[in-house]
Amino acid sequence: MSSVLARVLFYPTLAYNVVMEKITSRHWYNRVDPTVILGALPFRSMTEELVQNEKVRGVITMNEEYETKYFCNSAEDWQAVGVDQIRLSTVDLTGIPSLEHVHKGVDFALKHREQGTSVYIHCKAGRSRSATIAAAYLIRLHCWSPEEACKMLASVRPHVLIRSAQLEILQEYFKQAVQGLKGSTVPPEDGSSALRNAPAPSASADPGREEGRGEGVKMAASLVRFVRNGFGRSLNVARQSAAIVQTRTTTTETRPTVRPKDPVTHTQLSEFGEYIAEILPKYVQQVQVTCFNELELMIHPEGIIPVLTFLKDHTNAQFHNMTDLTAVDVPTRQYRFEIVYNLLSLRYNSRIRVKTYTDELSPLDSSVPVHQAADWYEREIWDMFGVFFANHPDLRRILTDYGFEGHPFRKDFPLSGYVEVRYDDEVKRVVAEPVELAQEFRKFDLNSPWEAFPAYREPKDAPKLESGDKPAK
Description:
Elements: H1 2-23, E1 29-31, E2 36-39, H2 47-53, E3 56-61, H3 65-68, H4 75-80, E4 84-87, H5 99-115, E5 118-122, H6 129-142, H7 146-156, H8 164-177, H9 207-229, H10 232-246, H11 263-279, E6 284-290, E7 294-299, H12 304-313, E8 321-329, E9 337-345, E10 350-358, E11 364-365, H13 374-385, E12 389-390, E13 419-424, E14 429-434
Parallel strand pairs: 2-5, 3-4, 3-5, 7-10, 11-12
Antiparallel strand pairs: 1-2, 6-7, 8-9, 9-10, 13-14
Helix pairs in contact: 5-6, 6-7, 6-8
């Protein structure tokens, strides 16, 4: 019954997935980590993109034969372009991957992780069957719980839907793959095949399969009601299920204004930073996660445009918003100015900080072609620090007055010897006059460690009178 229903609904639901990918923010596939890509049906037209751009050398197909017969490559077609394919056929809509399939899929992905290549795990929509294999891969690799693995997948691909029966399979796999290895001193996270020592459950000794069949009958009945009653009720159930998957495992927070520690997020940011460094090794010089969950990149000055473009356009980044751009002056360094780009991804609710460096004479490429919001930020940095941005559309002072000399935010900028410009209400015009500093608030017992021109503050020594001399009149 469930297999027949899956065949009947295959083409309508496939068309629905294509439409949703076009009109919403969904992506046809998303990269989970440097090895695994989770996605929908890999159409023949996507072969070149997956093989050349994403470096895919392995494909895990969760579909039955009829689902991929007309739209996707066969095993021979994949082999012709240097890609290995394994098929772990599972019924659509109501099917649950068996533990044997889960073991095979994870071992296949770990083998390609050892080789440094990518694996494309897919079903029809990349939501349920394939997401189960991807979650099992994360459980095996990081020793995460099923809930942590599902939460990570939901952060990368928000519309994944792991059903309760599939979650039970993941929990059983967790017991075999993680809890069964706790006796070892070092968990095998290097992609080894230690799982093969665990006995794979046979078809006759798998009690979850019988439960899965009963669950499949229930799902088939619900799908009949879905066809009769329309899409609304089923969509509400799907939203509730997705909300359960995305619920945080720990909600204790004693200080709401302080970002709590989140090991899962910390691991995700670290791996994403390593991924950026692997993609752009020419420009990325340092990667670190600071302040709990803040990713920070130090890049070469020549990499401003390539790195910002990559972070803005990459499907797993989408840092479209520049929230701030500023500079820091540290005169003791060889490159005294540090330029800081703060970026925000609304798609993934994530932030990243990109830093670069320069000196007084070396210009930087303007980031206005990538982020229009950088226009006034770069004008402010030019005005306050004197950092020149090449190819800026309108680089001129933004805060100081016409004819102003110097850059006030430099550490060696003198505090005296300049005039201030203000509006005088008595004369009804703008006046320029020497800076007036209240003497009772000034301290002369300390010298600024940044003072580069002490002659501006230390007056010349007055000539001393010898005994018997009279002062000149």
